[in-house]
Amino acid sequence: MIKQRVVLMMGVGLPALASAGLPSMEIDEQCLGIAVKEEHSLMSRTTSVAGGLGGSVVMGSAKGAPARVSAGAARRSAPRRKSLAPQAEMSAADEAAPAPSVAPAPPMAPVESEEAIDMDDGFLRDRRDKDQAAASFGGTVHLSNDDALSLASPQRLLYALERHLPTPVEHIRPHEFLNYFSFDLPGVTGDDAFGVGWSAVQQDDGLTMSIVLQGRELDRDAMDLTWVVDRSGSMGADDRMPLTHASLRTMAENLQEGDRVDVVLFDDRSCAAVRNYVAGRDSLEALTRVIGQIQPRGGTDLNQGLQMGYAMAEAHAADSGRSGQVMVFTDAMLNTGDVSVATTERIGGSLDKHGIRLTGVGVGEDFRDDVLDALTEKGKGAYLFLGSEAVVERFFGAGLGSLLTPLAEDLKVALELPDSLGMERFYGEQISTVAAEVQPVTFASGASQVFFQDLRIARKGLKASDELELVLSWKDPGSGEVRSQVVRKRAVELLRADTTPVFKARALMSFSDALLAQQMGGACDEPAGAFDRARQGAPGDGELAWLADLMPRSCAVAAVSPGAPGFEAPALQVAVDADVPVGQVTLRCADGDQSEILSAARPAARFAQKTGACEVQVQGPVPLVTRVELDGSDTELMCRVRGGRIACR
Length: 649
Fold this sequence. Notes:
By secondary structure, this protein is of the alpha+beta class. Helix content is 26%, strand content 28%.
């Protein structure tokens, strides 16, 4: 086997502790060539693997694990006995058990008038399940929206809708829409780990509430990364390998000094192309050259690639004591070796037991969602879909710190309700009155989530002084200590808050309902109409306007006015101040479109100066568009992106 030992001291300023004791970089040229020889030096460590890897990023696909009921499947299943919503996790025994008989709730009194605010908005009726009985009033409910970077479902669906591709029911997980789209963030104050924003709308005997959770952004220490890359023949289809190359190069350019990288390649065999690359110490050019030499060939033995990657990551964890993450880039088209999804899932769980997180990167329009979902469900990492270089930049460029840095591990979210309120429906992944039935999740640094629920008001009414309590508990990733944060809110404060998050969350759930109805062959005009009514409560929201344009044509929804056609557009230097990572800026003008990718090295887009009117499009989670007018004297445009809205001056 031909190996090249590379010792290029590039980083004069590299902290001594970041690379102290790390071996020299090695490149295996034979691994990159035609004759690939299997390496067994580390495989013996994995012969008894009984667990699995963690999160997953998707380049062209979506998610759904056997350990949980997907949103689509949950809606077609009977509720479990102790669960409060169809999205909750179900065992086989629970599914077989009959649902308990619950008498209809008696008529309920409205909120007491002394401080209550009555906002009678008919959109609430569009979503409420008339036949779903409310839970007991008061008490504690435990909630989960999955890991904060579980975003594959909306990414894959939006990609498909833009290209008029099928949107299978199993790819539609509504709670991920709440994770993916932008909301006004509450900010993190003092020593808190989380900022919490509350809002509610009351109608008759119901209260619809949103809770926006924002995580503090952390600095991270140098860590050990293992990139497991699929180079099987199926990776030669569409743009799978170019997107993989772009992701790896972007990540390599955004590594922190002292980060160590190993690169494992697999087809029907596996080998380590790079060992012990250290950012700031070794040649970046050498690593990017290796990335460019990865080409499709052979079959797909994902399990073997995972085992080798796992073994290397485990060895580093034992030797260095640093945090580690395995990142898998694959279309998961298993066709050789052990093709069992259950085996892949067990490997993910094993990584999690050793404190090694997993990010799974799904590549291709038709990658195996069931495989990556099972893998990332157990490995507690990110699960994303990447369909363009702008999105690559968002997660592997500007957003790499969040992707690699957990703020909280084993996060548990509990909502304590007053006796005047009962949970009617939770639009998340899991809910239960029993804490053990809701799986803890990982919350990434700087990430945000929205918890959205319908509550029912007891017959005695809701007092303005009634208080709700949110209890967050988690394990600190660095120290392992268990920490907690408690936030309380009075009902009157909920009802007086800005209602935009409630309406936006309702619109997103109605949009997912329309997709489900359309794919299941039913009428989708009712949820589409509900979407249109709800978005009127979030005026000027560019993300919702964009979704309205993507609504399937079979669903009746009011058209969004695109503005006057055929503008004359200027171009200039465009800087972006955003609350989410932005990967690309586009100027859409009468004489054509111009785009620039943003990065840490290029924080502003630069275009030739013009005069007149045009559109500026900023690519964040979704494209946001605004019109601008220039008289030719302007030299800089500042675009501010907050909560899914854009304004440029």
